[in-house]
Amino acid sequence: MIYGYVRVSTDKQSTENQRFEIEKFAKAKSMRIDRWVEETISGTTDVAERQLGRLIKQIRKGDMLVTTELSRLGRNLMQVMSFLHQCMERDIFVLTVKERYELGNNINSKILAFAFSLSAEIERNLISQRTKEALARKKKEGTKLGRPKGGKSEQYKLSGKESQIRKLLEEKKTRLYISKKLGVNRQTLRDFMRMNPELD
Protein backbone atom coordinates (compact mmCIF):
# COMPACT_ATOMS: atom_id res chain seq x y z
CA MET A 1 0.00 0.00 0.00
CA ILE A 2 1.01 3.60 -0.53
CA TYR A 3 0.23 6.04 2.29
CA GLY A 4 0.14 9.82 1.99
CA TYR A 5 1.08 11.60 5.23
CA VAL A 6 0.19 15.25 5.80
CA ARG A 7 0.78 17.27 8.99
CA VAL A 8 0.31 20.90 9.98
CA SER A 9 1.20 22.41 13.35
CA THR A 10 -1.90 24.54 13.99
CA ASP A 11 -5.53 24.64 12.92
CA LYS A 12 -4.76 27.99 11.24
CA GLN A 13 -2.76 26.11 8.63
CA SER A 14 -4.22 24.02 5.82
CA THR A 15 -3.28 20.51 4.75
CA GLU A 16 -4.50 21.18 1.21
CA ASN A 17 -1.15 22.40 -0.17
CA GLN A 18 0.73 19.37 1.11
CA ARG A 19 -1.92 17.02 -0.22
CA PHE A 20 -1.81 18.72 -3.63
CA GLU A 21 2.01 18.38 -3.76
CA ILE A 22 1.84 14.68 -2.88
CA GLU A 23 -0.92 14.00 -5.44
CA LYS A 24 1.09 15.78 -8.16
CA PHE A 25 4.21 13.79 -7.19
CA ALA A 26 2.28 10.49 -7.19
CA LYS A 27 0.78 11.24 -10.61
CA ALA A 28 4.24 11.96 -12.06
CA LYS A 29 5.46 8.63 -10.64
CA SER A 30 2.34 6.79 -11.88
CA MET A 31 1.43 5.90 -8.30
CA ARG A 32 -1.90 5.95 -6.51
CA ILE A 33 -2.21 6.97 -2.87
CA ASP A 34 -4.24 4.19 -1.23
CA ARG A 35 -4.77 5.89 2.10
CA TRP A 36 -4.36 9.40 3.51
CA VAL A 37 -3.34 10.26 7.05
CA GLU A 38 -3.79 13.92 7.99
CA GLU A 39 -3.27 15.53 11.38
CA THR A 40 -2.99 18.91 13.03
CA ILE A 41 -0.38 18.60 15.75
CA SER A 42 3.03 20.00 16.63
CA GLY A 43 6.01 18.10 15.28
CA THR A 44 7.54 18.25 18.76
CA THR A 45 4.80 15.92 20.04
CA ASP A 46 6.10 12.40 20.50
CA VAL A 47 5.43 10.21 17.44
CA ALA A 48 3.68 7.62 19.64
CA GLU A 49 1.04 10.21 20.54
CA ARG A 50 0.37 11.12 16.92
CA GLN A 51 -1.56 9.40 14.15
CA LEU A 52 1.84 8.81 12.59
CA GLY A 53 2.69 6.56 15.53
CA ARG A 54 -0.45 4.49 14.99
CA LEU A 55 0.26 4.38 11.27
CA ILE A 56 3.75 2.92 11.68
CA LYS A 57 2.18 -0.05 13.51
CA GLN A 58 -0.12 -0.74 10.57
CA ILE A 59 2.30 -0.34 7.66
CA ARG A 60 3.69 -3.60 6.34
CA LYS A 61 6.91 -4.65 4.64
CA GLY A 62 7.17 -3.20 1.14
CA ASP A 63 4.62 -0.43 1.82
CA MET A 64 5.46 3.16 1.00
CA LEU A 65 4.95 6.40 2.94
CA VAL A 66 4.91 9.63 0.91
CA THR A 67 5.20 13.03 2.60
CA THR A 68 6.16 16.51 1.39
CA GLU A 69 9.38 16.70 3.43
CA LEU A 70 11.16 14.94 6.29
CA SER A 71 10.37 17.77 8.69
CA ARG A 72 6.69 16.68 8.54
CA LEU A 73 7.76 13.53 10.43
CA GLY A 74 9.28 15.38 13.39
CA ARG A 75 10.92 18.56 14.63
CA ASN A 76 14.25 17.25 15.89
CA LEU A 77 17.00 14.94 14.75
CA MET A 78 16.34 12.06 17.13
CA GLN A 79 12.62 12.00 16.42
CA VAL A 80 13.04 11.87 12.65
CA MET A 81 15.89 9.36 12.83
CA SER A 82 13.96 7.10 15.20
CA PHE A 83 10.98 7.03 12.85
CA LEU A 84 13.12 6.42 9.75
CA HIS A 85 15.03 3.68 11.57
CA GLN A 86 11.75 1.86 12.28
CA CYS A 87 10.76 2.17 8.62
CA MET A 88 14.13 0.98 7.32
CA GLU A 89 14.22 -2.02 9.69
CA ARG A 90 10.83 -3.13 8.40
CA ASP A 91 11.60 -2.48 4.70
CA ILE A 92 9.13 0.40 4.49
CA PHE A 93 10.02 3.04 1.90
CA VAL A 94 9.77 6.76 2.69
CA LEU A 95 9.52 9.21 -0.21
CA THR A 96 9.65 12.98 0.15
CA VAL A 97 8.24 15.29 -2.50
CA LYS A 98 10.32 18.44 -2.02
CA GLU A 99 13.72 16.86 -1.36
CA ARG A 100 13.07 13.95 -3.75
CA TYR A 101 14.47 11.48 -1.23
CA GLU A 102 13.72 7.79 -1.64
CA LEU A 103 14.68 6.24 1.65
CA GLY A 104 14.85 2.51 2.15
CA ASN A 105 16.92 0.03 4.10
CA ASN A 106 20.34 0.92 2.68
CA ILE A 107 23.38 2.80 3.95
CA ASN A 108 22.98 5.69 1.50
CA SER A 109 19.46 6.32 2.75
CA LYS A 110 20.62 6.30 6.37
CA ILE A 111 23.43 8.75 5.70
CA LEU A 112 21.15 11.04 3.69
CA ALA A 113 18.40 11.02 6.34
CA PHE A 114 20.92 11.72 9.09
CA ALA A 115 22.53 14.60 7.21
CA PHE A 116 19.21 16.24 6.34
CA SER A 117 17.78 15.93 9.85
CA LEU A 118 20.96 17.24 11.44
CA SER A 119 21.12 20.28 9.16
CA ALA A 120 17.40 21.03 9.72
CA GLU A 121 17.86 20.93 13.50
CA ILE A 122 20.98 23.11 13.35
CA GLU A 123 19.08 25.66 11.24
CA ARG A 124 16.19 25.77 13.73
CA ASN A 125 18.65 26.28 16.59
CA LEU A 126 20.40 29.07 14.69
CA ILE A 127 17.10 30.82 14.00
CA SER A 128 16.16 30.52 17.67
CA GLN A 129 19.55 31.88 18.74
CA ARG A 130 19.33 34.79 16.28
CA THR A 131 15.87 35.66 17.59
CA LYS A 132 17.10 35.64 21.21
CA GLU A 133 20.09 37.82 20.30
CA ALA A 134 17.88 40.31 18.43
CA LEU A 135 15.49 40.57 21.39
CA ALA A 136 18.38 41.03 23.82
CA ARG A 137 19.83 43.79 21.61
CA LYS A 138 16.48 45.60 21.40
CA LYS A 139 16.07 45.36 25.17
CA LYS A 140 19.57 46.78 25.69
CA GLU A 141 18.73 49.64 23.31
CA GLY A 142 15.71 50.47 25.44
CA THR A 143 13.03 49.14 23.11
CA LYS A 144 10.01 47.95 25.06
CA LEU A 145 9.22 44.35 24.19
CA GLY A 146 5.87 42.66 24.26
CA ARG A 147 2.37 43.92 23.64
CA PRO A 148 1.86 47.63 24.34
CA LYS A 149 -0.14 48.38 27.46
CA GLY A 150 -3.80 48.49 26.61
CA GLY A 151 -3.12 46.74 23.30
CA LYS A 152 -5.24 44.06 21.81
CA SER A 153 -5.43 40.98 24.01
CA GLU A 154 -7.11 37.61 24.09
CA GLN A 155 -10.13 39.21 25.74
CA TYR A 156 -10.91 41.04 22.50
CA LYS A 157 -11.74 37.69 20.97
CA LEU A 158 -14.95 37.84 22.99
CA SER A 159 -15.91 41.38 22.01
CA GLY A 160 -19.32 41.40 20.37
CA LYS A 161 -20.21 38.00 21.85
CA GLU A 162 -21.81 39.35 25.02
CA SER A 163 -25.34 38.29 24.01
CA GLN A 164 -24.11 34.78 23.13
CA ILE A 165 -22.36 34.48 26.51
CA ARG A 166 -25.47 35.77 28.32
CA LYS A 167 -27.67 33.25 26.50
CA LEU A 168 -25.35 30.35 27.39
CA LEU A 169 -25.27 31.47 31.01
CA GLU A 170 -29.06 31.60 31.07
CA GLU A 171 -29.05 28.03 29.74
CA LYS A 172 -26.97 27.14 32.82
CA LYS A 173 -23.94 26.20 30.74
CA THR A 174 -20.68 26.03 32.70
CA ARG A 175 -17.89 28.53 32.13
CA LEU A 176 -15.71 25.69 30.94
CA TYR A 177 -18.31 24.76 28.31
CA ILE A 178 -18.71 28.40 27.23
CA SER A 179 -14.96 29.04 26.97
CA LYS A 180 -14.45 25.90 24.85
CA LYS A 181 -17.39 26.80 22.61
CA LEU A 182 -15.97 30.28 22.06
CA GLY A 183 -12.40 29.08 21.56
CA VAL A 184 -10.77 30.75 24.56
CA ASN A 185 -9.49 29.54 27.90
CA ARG A 186 -11.48 29.86 31.13
CA GLN A 187 -9.29 32.65 32.48
CA THR A 188 -9.91 34.77 29.37
CA LEU A 189 -13.67 34.28 29.79
CA ARG A 190 -13.45 35.07 33.52
CA ASP A 191 -11.50 38.27 32.86
CA PHE A 192 -13.91 39.33 30.11
CA MET A 193 -16.88 38.81 32.41
CA ARG A 194 -15.17 40.80 35.12
CA MET A 195 -14.70 43.66 32.64
CA ASN A 196 -18.39 43.37 31.75
CA PRO A 197 -20.19 43.17 35.13
CA GLU A 198 -23.58 42.75 33.48
CA LEU A 199 -22.47 39.24 32.48
CA ASP A 200 -21.19 38.12 35.88
Question: Which blocks of ≥5 consecutive residues have pLDDT under 50?
Answer: none
**How far do the termini sit from each other?**
56 Å
Widest beta sheet: strand line-up: 2-1-3-4-5
Mean pLDDT: 83
* Number of discrete helical segments: 7
Shape descriptor reads extended
Map the helices and strands.
Blueprint: E1 2-8, H1 16-28, E2 35-40, H2 51-58, E3 64-67, H3 77-89, E4 93-96, E5 102-103, H4 107-140, H5 162-170, H6 175-182, H7 186-195
Parallel strand pairs: 1-2, 1-3, 3-4
Antiparallel strand pairs: 4-5
Helix pairs in contact: 3-4, 6-7
Can you put this structure into words, describing what you see?
- With 200 residues, the protein is of the alpha/beta class.
- Helix content is 48%, strand content 12%.
- The protein has a five-stranded mixed sheet, with helices on both faces.
- Helix 1 links the parallel strand 1 (2-8) and strand 2.
- Helix 3 runs antiparallel to helix 4 (107-140).
- The relative contact order is 0.09.
- The mean pLDDT is 83.
Give a brief rundown of this model:
Helices cover 48% and strands 12% of the residues. It contains seven helices and five strands; from the N terminus they run E-H-E-H-E-H-E-E-H-H-H-H. The protein has helices at 16-28, 51-58, 77-89, 107-140, 162-170, 175-182, 186-195, and strands at 2-8, 35-40, 64-67, 93-96, 102-103.
